[in-house]
Structures are given as C-alpha cells and as structure tokens.
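Hi V.,

You were right to ask for the full record rather than a summary. Here it is.
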Amino acid sequence: MVKSFQHFSRATVDWCHFDDLCPYESTLSEMEKQVAQIHARKAAEQVWLLQHPALYTAGTSARPGDLLDAGRFPVFETGRGGQYTYHGPGQRICYTMLDLTRRGRDVRKLVEMLEKWVIETLAHFEVKGEIREGRVGVWVARPDKPPVNGEMCEDKIAAIGIRLRRWVSYHGMALNVCPDLEHYAGIVPCGISGHGVTSLHDLGVKVSMREVDEALRASFVKIFETPVKETCRSIQA
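Predicted structure:
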C-alpha cells in the first residue's frame, strides 16, 4: 500500500487545463518559471493538463540507438528522468509541480503516488493498470495478444518521468487516451523493447478527454489527499 505524503498544510493545488496544443519549448520554459515561484512560496502548487503536437523527448538516460527515426518528428532533449518517449494529440499530459519540502522529501514516494494516480484513474473505466519491477510506467495485460517470451503480453498505457529543482517536482506523467499509436514506431519507448503501447481507445474504452480529466481530478484528490482549484493560464509559442 502506498503511503500518502506528509502534509504541512492543506492548501489547494491549482488545476489548469490548456485547450490548444501547447508548443513544447515554451511550455517547458513556463513550467520552469512556475517551479521557481512555487519554491519561493509566491505561487500555489500546480497541475497542468495539456496536449502537445507530435514530438519525441529524450530523458537523461536516453540512448541514441533508441531513436529509430530521427526525421519523423521534432526531438527535444529534456532534463526529466527516463529515456525516449512520444507526446502528441490524444495523449493527456499531466505536468505536476509539487513542493516536496512541504510534502516530505521522498522522490520514490512521489513516483509511487503518480503511478497510483494513473491506476486509480484507469479503474474509473474498469481498466486494470499495473506496475512492473524494472519497467517504468503503468502497464495493462493483453490476453488478446500473442504471449511475449512465453508470458502474457503487456502494453504500456502511461509514461512517468519527473525532475526536481530545489525540491519542487515538474514534468510528470502522460496517459494515452486516443493518440496515433503508430507514432511510437520512431523510438524504442522508454528504452523497453519486446512490449507494446496501448491507449484507452485501443482497449475499446471510447471515453472523451473530458471524461478522463474528470477521473484524473477525482483520483488526484483521493491519492494526494489535497483539494484542487480550477485556474486558467495561457502559453504563448
């Protein structure tokens, strides 16, 4: 069972949706500014829900050989942990900026909480998400597919990668709702071969992004034991 964070206050987390596709570089720049504000206690903690145009990102452990088609989409180097991953329309990205000085300086626990958040969200749609030792992210068993090395096939449905600056987290997780899964063919996702990727729509769960967002919000409040407040922001290209 995942333990909750320590709480020095019950302040709300600002919960912000971005309707348009958000350019990656300017979004990262704005996120870094927000992290500095949170560290200085000049802004509330934040969760941003958005989508990016189709692109690949390289984490701090990315291996050059895992970029199979460098000319397919723009590639951005990023300071988050992990390897190559894909972002694009139909994927709900949740950038999660939390002050771990106030919540307990435990990075492993933060990752566990993000995993639990995804699993709780999937449960709203009767999808069983699971974690696997040595494989980052959240996985779904696929008994409808051929076995892999004699074991049941498992596909990845959510990626997790975070970075800390002065004990404030940023980046976060990405949940596949209805992206074009063929776009993953240009990379070895998160450096893991022999397994595929999936989405809610691929699993036959034809929910809207709005429905997913509602489940994400309810699950966040439950798992992180923190109320949220709807706010509005904009990101300029």
